[in-house]
Amino acid sequence: MTRKFAWLCVALLLNGALNYSSLRAAPAWVSDVFEITLRTGPSSDNVILMVVPSGTELTVLEEDGVYTLVQTLGGTEGWVLTRYLMDEPSAREKLEGMVQKLTNSQAYGESMAAELDEIRAEYGDMTRAFNNLQQDKITLESELKRITDKAENVIAIDSQNVDLQQKLTTAEIQINLLEDEKDRLLNQSDRKWFFIGALVLLGGIFLGLVLPYMKFQRRTRYDQF
Length: 225
Description:
Helices cover 68% and strands 15% of the residues. The protein is α+β, with helices and mostly antiparallel strands. It is built from three helices and seven strands, in the order H-E-E-E-E-E-E-E-H-H. The chain is rod-shaped. Strand 5 and strand 6 form a beta hairpin.
């Protein structure tokens, strides 16, 4: 009988130790209803160490029924009422984090739009330069034909032909380079418009999903009161 009682005590101690270790370092968050007090002991008679704002993350060290021993991120340990703690951040904290992410995405989208405007302006400049070079090419070709048709001196014709042919070759090279640059800018512009559209669409979907959920959470909280 004594041996059985001893084994029972050992089992109870081990179970208590396992339960205590499972409670240590567990996360908890202060309810978003109000601020709570952190005290030196598990009763309202103990000294208040600090006031913990709603939404604050705490680390659970020990539970004592009505009160829970917690630790702040700054390292302060104290007791708070267990009913004022939640196992996850409040809906308001989650919403604020999501709204911040959405705001950052919108700001990035605006930056991308400004960069897109710059690319479009550069594309316009390239297009105008391309058109000017095309006109120069036409002029040079016309001049080359005129000299070839009317020139009487073969040496003079050959000299002018070589000069004009070099200019024509240079103009064609520049035109090819501008065509490649124009295509690159056009492709880059299309990609950025697609990205901005995707950001706007995701933002709309996010608001459509989150706002009804928040209204439901607020209505449920009021019903509980």
